[in-house]
Write a structure and sequence with these properties.
mainly alpha, globular, 85% helix, single chain, 259 residues
Length: 259
Amino acid sequence: MLFEIVFLFLAGLFGGVLNSIAGGGSFITFPALIFVGIPPIVANATNTFASCAGYMSGTYAFRKELSQHKGGLLRIVIISLLGGASGAWLLLQTPEAVFRDAIPWLLLFATVLFIFGGQINTLLKNITKKHQHASAIGAVLLTVLLLAVSAYGGFFNAGLGIVVLSYLALAGFTNINTMNGLKLLISSTISLIAIVLFIYNDVIAWYQGVIVLSGTLVGGYVAADLSRKMPQKHVRRFVILASIATTVYFFYDIYLSSR
């Protein structure tokens, strides 16, 4: 019992730090919940609940950066709410075995997108320069992409910060502090609407979730100031290594260990 409490709190603390600095905290908290015996769909819903505190505290810490983009925040929030609700509803309709088999592929998608998001962004900018209508088409595509990203977050919280950061890179944001603030706002919005649906359907493990939540709340706020000072390339490299390791583990655990 004591080990579980300490283990989950430390996972939440570390996950909250990662979420606030570069994303990817759920690569720590989601496996931790499964490790203590929680079924995958319940673990995913619980992880969404637990991570939300870190998202919200981090968003508050980045309030100055967000205030510089007031004009577009309402649109971002509305799209995030719609997508998050759709993803959470889809998760609740998915059989446990199907979701379990999908976990490694979802993690792989998030990892690849995080690693190559910059190159994709550069490619899209080049296309925009060459085609006069590309900017208008690009605006529509970015709206659809944010809706899809939000649906992903409602369906599978692990890797959400990474996917959102990749979206922001594609949207043309370059300032890492602004991107972190928007990432945390989008993640908070998606998680809050998903949590409402998860509570209604009673799929949150409250005891374990509150322990992890306590850790993410502390880690998310403390690391928000730290992220402004840390070399981003080092943080990025660590998140890439952690995401690759987690993805490889789940592929092994689900497809190879039982054979």
